[in-house]
């Protein structure tokens, strides 16, 4: 780790340094063990907890924190080892609901500082394992306008007619036209409360989006294709370029502001210095999978199993392909691995430009 530029984590708006630790992996759910001190705990242990209310009781102090049930196992640890270690280190008692039951983790202790320390340690532990969960939702700009779908299907047909002899080029690696979209950022929302929180934060973005878009839908054009590898003969992802018709940067600015807002809220992790907006049209993870998902999962290919395709002829013949124009008027909180009545991803929330 670069000591001058350490990795940082954001917990409820507070920043902690991420220390390098050795991770242990266990196959069974109960086989998760605390290897202490946990990430950033040496720094965090002495911090005071100002993001949660610590109540004084007849027996001392109490704090209740919201943790999704899927993360309980990481706080309990192998045979309860992690919880016992946390309780011993902080001189507190940590009460965790039964697995699968949504509720609050309640931390009690004789001293306020001890409860505060335990809360911080639990939050750092939860944040560490939350980052390892697959994303469940994403903010998206839908590109499934009928005109764009029509242009995409024409592109697909012509590519298969003219380039199907090229290595790895076949129908299943093309995106589902009903799910064409731009991904703004991904999130792991692990229970209904977190989904509601994300929806509320999306609504908070309404005013600045309307200011940027001047209260009108944003005219866009989808023209040209690019690839995401160094070698055009070994490509995994081919995407369509999307730009504002007036050549302004409004679309990029809206995306940046959305990511900034959700990162500040602790709901999203910034992956890039600049949001990379791209409309995926071909992805080798789609191979033998007709759902149009962009990432491996149960029954889907993993990155190591991907078979790249030769995109040289596609780029030569269709590099300036014109998919069409449309007016974008919506930002959606989309649910991964889902489909609504239109064929697009099911939306948990949305806001309009106008």
From TrEMBL:
Provide the GO MF annotations for this entry.
RNA binding
Q: Name one GO cellular component term.
A: nucleus
Q: Which GO terms describe its biological process?
A: DNA alkylation repair; regulation of DNA-templated transcription
Q: Recite the UniProt keywords alphabetically.
A: RNA-binding
Is GTP-binding among this UniProt entry's keywords? no
A Pfam family matched in the record? AKAP7_NLS
Instruction: Indicate the segments forming the K Homology domain, all copies.
Output: 59-127
Q: Which residues form a coiled coil?
A: none
Q: Does the keyword RNA-binding apply?
A: yes
Q: Which Gene3D superfamilies match?
A: Cyclic phosphodiesterase (3.90.1140.10), K Homology domain, type 1 (3.30.1370.10)
Identify the InterPro entries for this entry: AKAP7-like_phosphoesterase, ASCC1, KH-I_ASCC1, KH_dom, KH_dom_type_1, KH_dom_type_1_sf
Its recorded name reads Activating signal cointegrator 1 complex subunit 1
Gene from which this protein is expressed: ASCC1
């Amino acid at each position: 780790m670069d000591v001058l530029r350490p990795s940082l984590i954001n917990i409820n708006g507070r920043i902690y340094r991420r220390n390098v630790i050795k991770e242990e992996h266990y196959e069974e759910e109960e086989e998760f063990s605390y290897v202490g001190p946990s990430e950033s705990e040496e720094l965090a242990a002495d911090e005071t907890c100002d993001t949660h209310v610590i109540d004084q009781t007849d027996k001392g102090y109490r704090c209740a924190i919201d943790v999704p049930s899927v993360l309980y196992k990481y706080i309990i640890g192998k045979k309860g080892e992690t919880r016992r270690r946390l309780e011993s280190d902080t001189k507190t008692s940590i009460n965790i609901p039964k697995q699968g039951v949504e509720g609050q983790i309640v931390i009690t202790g004789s001293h306020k500082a001890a409860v505060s320390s335990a809360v911080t340690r639990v939050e750092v532990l939860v944040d560490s394992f939350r980052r390892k969960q697959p994303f469940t939702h994403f903010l998206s700009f839908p590109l499934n306008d009928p005109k764009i779908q029509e242009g995409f299907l024409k592109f697909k047909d012509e590519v298969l007619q003219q380039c199907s002899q090229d290595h790895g080029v076949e129908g299943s690696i093309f995106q589902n036209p009903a799910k064409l979209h731009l991904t703004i950022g991904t999130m792991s929302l692990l229970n209904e409360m977190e989904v509601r929180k994300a929806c509320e934060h999306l609504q908070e973005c309404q005013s600045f989006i309307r200011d940027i878009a001047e209260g009108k839908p944003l005219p866009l054009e989808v023209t040209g294709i690019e690839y995401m590898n160094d070698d055009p003969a070994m490509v995994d992802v081919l995407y369509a370029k999307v730009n504002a018709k007036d050549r302004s940067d409004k679309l990029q600015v809206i995306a940046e502001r959305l990511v900034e807002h959700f990162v500040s809220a602790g709901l999203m992790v910034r992956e890039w210095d600049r949001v990379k907006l791209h409309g995926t049209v071909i992805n080798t993870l789609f191979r033998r999978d007709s759902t149009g998902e962009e990432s491996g999962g149960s029954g889907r290919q993993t990155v190591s199993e991907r078979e790249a395709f030769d995109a040289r002829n596609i780029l030569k013949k269709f590099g300036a392909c014109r998919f069409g124009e449309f007016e974008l008027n919506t930002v959606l909180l989309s649910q991964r691995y889902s489909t609504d009545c239109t064929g697009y991803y099911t939306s948990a929330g949305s806001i309009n430009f106008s």
